[in-house]
Design goal:
By secondary structure, this protein is α/β, with parallel strands linked by helices. It folds into two domains: 148 residues, 3-Layer(aba) Sandwich (Rossmann fold), CATH 3.40.50.1000; 111 residues, Hypothetical Protein, Haloacid Dehalogenase-like Hydrolase, Chain: A, domain 2 (2-Layer Sandwich). 28% of the residues lie in helices and 23% in strands. It is built from nine helices and 14 strands. Strands 5-4-3-2-1-12-13-14 form an eight-stranded mixed beta sheet, with helices on both faces. A six-stranded mixed beta sheet has the order 8-7-6-9-11-10, with helices on one face. The longest helix has 13 residues.
């Protein structure tokens, strides 16, 4: 029976050097040829998806950590923060010296010091993340948006408040989890409206495509994958995943640079 397979991007399908291992590309293509439906399942938003990923044949995407779902050319779900909600959080960011980036399906808006928070800043030639910078550059600005899917922030290490205190200040209307991309200048976090996680997007995609949740497979490595791993019919953690992520997986495969995706697909008979 065909499966709906939801694959994380960073740390699962794309390495720190912004490349996809040949074995993972082979596994994706073979699984699609076998009749399965494959979706990218990522904290990234649409502008952050490299063309080479779409060229593998993915049928759609769960983007923004569950805030946005697109299957083929049809937008199945698009949950965004309002201008008022964005302004509220941005004001808190500014009061606490936090650098930020708002990430939506059609525009990215960041504080002027955002890239400087990272070692090997993406906007610097020679950085492993420079291809990422070039990918989002056409939609990048330093304004505050009027709507967006999610945000990424960097709380400085020398902040007067702890990460836990900062989460409390933001308030319960928002869902905050540690981000999978670390920064040199502080602790990173991913911010969405409360109730939005990748499993919400997976359920919407499954319903749209006519799959029972029991026939879904989720693969990931990061804290924002935990909810979808808990919800999927079959869950896979990468070998490079955190222990917390691994604890929610039915199968722990090898690391991304050790053919992790291919070995998982082979073990589960997905090719």
């Amino acid at each position: 029976m065909p499966k709906l397979i939801c694959i994380d991007v960073d740390g699962t399908l794309v390495t720190e050097t912004q490349e996809t291992p040949a074995s993972a590309r082979e596994a994706v293509r073979a699984s699609i040829a076998a009749g399965n439906k494959l979706l990218l399942s990522t904290g990234r938003s649409l502008p952050e998806i490299y063309p080479f990923l779409w060229d593998l044949g993915f049928h759609g995407i769960i983007a923004g950590s569950g805030a946005y779902v697109k299957i083929g050319e049809e937008v199945v779900m698009d949950r965004r923060m309002s201008a008022e909600e964005i302004s509220y959080v941005t004001d808190i960011y500014r009061r606490h010296g936090v650098n930020w980036m708002w990430q939506g399906p059609d525009e990215f808006c960041m504080s002027e010091g955002f890239f400087g928070s990272f070692a090997g800043a993406p906007n610097a030639e020679g950085s492993p993340w420079h291809p990422y910078y070039l990918q989002i550059l056409p939609v990048l600005s330093t304004k505050v948006p009027t709507s967006t899917s999610k945000g990424l922030f960097v709380l400085p290490y020398d902040s007067s408040v702890s990460y836990e205190e900062f989460v409390e200040i933001i308030g319960p209307k928002y869902h905050i989890i540690p981000d999978s991309v670390g920064a040199a200048e502080g602790t990173t976090g991913e911010l969405l409206l409360a109730g939005l996680t990748k499993d919400v997007g997976m359920r919407a995609a499954a319903k749209h495509l006519g799959f029972d949740v029991a026939d879904t497979v989720a693969i990931g490595d990061s804290p924002n994958d935990i909810e979808i791993l808990k919800a999927a019919g079959t869950s896979v953690a990468m070998g490079n995943a955190t222990d917390a992520v691994k604890s929610h997986a039915d199968l722990v495969t090898s690391a991304i640079d050790d053919d992790g995706v291919y070995r998982a697909f082979e073990t589960l008979g997905l090719m």
